[in-house]
Amino acid sequence: MDSNELASLPGINPNIPDASRIYDYTLGGTHNFEADRQAAEYMFSMVPSTRKWVRMLRACLQTAARRMAADGFKHWVDFASGLPTADHVHSVMPDARVIYTDINALTIDSARHLLGENPRVKYMECDIRGAGEFLRRPDVESFLEGERRVALGANAITVFLSAEENRKFFRDLYDWAAPGSKLFTTFETKEAGLSTPKWEQFVGMFRKMGESFNLYSLPEYLDLCGPWSQDHMGVVPVSEFIGKPSGYITEEDREGIGIEFYAVILEKR
Length: 269
Known about the structure:
The protein has about 270 residues and is an alpha/beta fold. The chain has one domain (about 5-265): Vaccinia Virus protein VP39 (Rossmann fold, 3-Layer(aba) Sandwich), CATH 3.40.50.150. The protein is built from twelve helices and eight strands.
């Protein structure tokens, strides 16, 4: 489906930027409009490394999916998924049953058109603040064939939750999942006490849209994950997680405030 087909969907307004389409543009996708591209470029003007970090986060998701597939997982539940374009989980794990979720109705409608009639993939509405209730829904359990030893994905979402919401989210997943389940997630950090006017403007943009935007230290993030255990690789910078060479992240990429993203696969033992 191209942008013309996307524009024909009920409720889609090409003149109003949408978070999922902005993300798509940042990844180099084609499912976006001029308003989305302008909004993204405005973000890049404040934090130029945004595009690089976002593309690494998508590469991390693909790497995690390949590792989960190698571990024999046949079920993946993904939270706050955005648009399921060609480089998303179902493309990396074509034999798995994949559930994507989002809270935005327009994103969900667009995503379902993108996916077509693929019987192994379902896009469902879910507020991640109620992830536990979502996982216990009969239609979710039916699609997962009653399986609770599953792969879970929470890519680039912790920053949009309060500490209490993060703790509840990770605990809800842990309580639902069977032993042997794994959870891929990422954390965004910066050096404590450092900021710049453009960074404050960047954060303010999200808050004006009604989004929470909270960075925590790496120890704080790991504490919020509660009872989950790290796998053998542990928590590492995203550049290391996807095998980039030393020096791939430059000082310019850290935007003068020590930006770093981390990735980890957690386990329920």
